[in-house]
Design a protein that fits this description.
Elements lengths: L7 E6 L2 E6 L4 H7 L6 E2 L6 E2 L12 E4 L2 E5 L10 E3 L11
Parallel strand pairs: 1-7
Antiparallel strand pairs: 1-2, 3-4, 5-6, 5-7
Bound molecules: FE2/S2 (inorganic) cluster.
């Protein structure tokens, strides 16, 4: 079990409580907790998570606090964030 630091943030993914260091992106926080995918492609249902890590591929879309299709690699994790497997198909931020 890892030691908690004063700068750790508490968040959840699909209802599961998790912890990550302050300053993490949403993608980084998920990967750090062993989560590698959080949405499915629209045609074949392939699992997707972080790919480019710089905001250009839109593979990492996730739902954050009810906001749909947020790029996990760009969004800073905040205390109490509720992350959910994305209902987006990956065709863009409004998809
Ligand atoms: S991983 Fe490519 S946009 Fe986030």
């Amino acid at each position: 079990m890892s030691k908690l630091a004063a700068t750790d943030l508490h968040f959840s993914f699909d209802g599961r409580p998790l912890i990550a260091p302050a300053g993490s992106t949403v993608a980084g926080a998920l990967v750090r907790n062993g989560v590698s995918s959080w949405r499915r492609t629209r045609v074949k249902g392939h699992a997707r998570g972080v790919f480019c890590g710089i905001g250009t591929c839109f593979d990492c879309l996730i739902d954050v606090n009810g906001e749909r299709a947020v790029r996990a690699c760009l969004r800073a994790l905040r205390e109490g964030d509720r992350l959910e497997t994305s209902s987006s198909t990956g065709a863009g931020p409004d998809a």
